[in-house]
Amino acid sequence: MRPVVSFFIIVSLFFSLSAVAENRELIVYSARKEHLIKPLFDFYTQKSGVTIRYTTDKAGLLLTRLKAEGSKSPADLLMTVDAGNLWHAAHLGLLQPVASPILQQRIPEHLRDPDNRWFGLSLRARTIVYHTDRVDPHSLSSYAGLADDKWRGRLCLRTAKKVYNQSLVAMLLHRWGQPKTEQIVSGWVKNLATAPFSDDTAVLKAIAAGQCDLGVVNTYYYGRLLRENPQLPVALFWPDKSEGGVHVNVSGAGITRSAKHPDAARALLEWLTSEEAQKLYAGLNLEYPVNPDVAPVAEVAAWGTFSADPTNLSIAGELQKQAAMLMDRVGYR
Ligand code: FE
To answer: How many CA atoms does the CB half-sphere of 6 hold within 13 Å?
Structure first.
């Protein structure tokens, strides 16, 4: 064999081998819990032959880690909850834009980054919940209405430190502006039955126990508790029908700036928005699929339909700091 020919053979062999390596393994950093991602990844591995190695941790810690690792990070994909966290990752320069007509077509525009650095993969509503014996749902209307004097000493909330509440207040800020939002949130604080709780499940349990009459939680926490106790005396209410819609948020993902396998990571992201993956991804956590062509599981569908706030979720990130400061100013801790 002439040396030039053998050189070309070696070079082309090298590129085909690296193409195989490109497609064989992916590394994911996930703030979404292991039991919610492992069944999906196992399914994908079986289907595609791609092995997925993952690390799960709190969102903030994963962002710190990605930042510290810089271009040496082994992570291809970051998965996390709340648009505020996804926005933050993009803002820190940890994610890269992904050009994918499939993702653009399957994910509604308001549930993904306008610059294509993160994409919502499942949808949750942060909505009002009430005790079915103690509250007439006709007396409910909106998030702003929870500031009304009639709810004095009857409201339970989760702490303002949680990004879910910061995103909710950020979206209210966008909708109503600073003075009115400040009025609303200070009304909530006045109406609290007890100090804010550290999680949504505690809010639901306090309502069920009669410690308070209503609150605001993410829908899947309600679904989980209802599964444990079908007699739970708590129901969901869809607010803001004529005021811009129910506040929704996402869990989602983005390809890291340092990804060693960006094409394989994009293929996984695209698969996650397919019908078979969406059913599993949303269903495992009693969430709504982001892909509007995929129906939620029966348990979730039973809660009825609602109109979601169509504002792009990047606003939740942009106004997050302002929202946190506002909450602090009115004594919501
Ligand atoms: Fe959660």
So the answer is: 3
